[in-house]
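Hey all, quick one. A colleague (J.T.) asked me to put the glutathione job into the tracker so the inputs and the structure tokens live in one place instead of scattered across chat threads. No bug as far as I know, just bookkeeping. Sequence used:
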Amino acid sequence: MKIYSSAVAPNPRRVRIFLAEKEIQVPYEDVDISSAVNRKPEYRKNINPMGEVPVLELDDGTHIAESVAICRYFEELHPEPPLFGVGAKERALVEMWNRRMEFHVMLPVAQTFRNTSEFFKGRIAQVPEYGEVCRAAAEKIYTWLDEELATRRFIAGDRFTIADITALCAVDFGRVSKIRIQPEQKNLARWREEVSSRPSARA
Ligand SMILES: N[C@@H](CCC(=O)N[C@@H](CS)C(=O)NCC(=O)O)C(=O)O
């Protein structure tokens, strides 16, 4: 078993933090996304047709891509500590919040980077104006998230979950595109400080 990963990308970091929380050790193989190894036909044919990381490779040769699918696999095998919630209601709420963090925080942050950075120039079709629309969307969602975090400790409630992992990786990656928590967003800053201080955040 191994995980195709990248030390510089936010989605592989989600998986690394998740595994660190569960104290599970899996070898990582770094994929050099800067030289676009992941977009070559060989990688797409043998590892992930989407040309992305992370990908979990099982000993039987199965490839599981998509960060949440990989995390769910390990949650099933190692339920403690529960990172997808406990019981029907909490699990549904964690799912809701994780999807919100994916679609409304990670996505605009990632699209800002993809459409405005030198890194992707010549590699994908960039639309810088769209990147700026995504930047504005991310900044707006931070304001909303700050309000949400006025009433609870973590993204989905009183428990640290995968929704916090997704949000942390997105917010940290946003800094690369100068999308930052604003000084008045005290709840968001308080949350980020707490989740960043967990040992897993260094994964
Ligand atoms: N939905 C996927 C997204 C994966 C993804 O966007 N991976 C990025 C790194 S964060 C990637 O492989 N980028 C390299 C590229 O697009 O060339 C997941 O959750 O795993």
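Adding what we noticed when we looked at it: The mean pLDDT is 97. The first helix runs from residue 10 to 22.
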